[in-house]
Amino acid sequence: MEIAENIDILEYEWLGEEDGSVMMAAEDSWRGLAVELNELHFVKGAAFVEQLRYIVSRGEFRLVEGETNIFSALGEQSEDFDNLLNAARKAVEHGYRVYILPNPKGIRTADFIFERKGVYKMYDLKTISGKTSLENRLKESIGQTNHVLVNVCSTYNARLMAIQIKNYFKVNPDALEVLVYKGKKAISVTRRFVENPLFLILFRRKYEK
Fold first, then answer.
1. What is the pLDDT of residues 18-41, one digit of tens each?
2. Where are the domains of the chain?
């Protein structure tokens, strides 16, 4: 990682609960958005979710002009901003509050943090247009986040998509979800769904109906 050296490690507090302990980020240790995003590579589980909550709470995100529930920390519009905004609008339609992430130099990070009903997830966006191979695009997300958002903006064969998503779960043991947006549809593909013997049939029904 190309992060500045000699950075103090984020301190955490352990808060006991009936079913275990939860590690929470200390509120007075903000080190800048780039560093806090990089910290996501070193925490898992409850600590990862708390880090997402911590990042969106620090005030570096601003409401995108003319939008509702879409916030951005980008200093300027990136080349991919239109694709990010189009996908974010669909997410808002499905009840999410969306935070568009910057892409600090030298850090592999995802594109969004989604929040809905207090649940935080980080998604990497893959916009599918033309004849782009979905499987190759999904593999690009390995090491960035375990949740991928696929925004389908062209005709894409449902059976082929299902097979390629299944292959992605096979090569990425850490993958948790591929969320597919097609028009107004939202199809959440989890590992459990993929392992269903009827996955190809069920996915096509959802995708083609």
1. 444 454 544 558 888 999 999 999
2. 1-60, 102-208
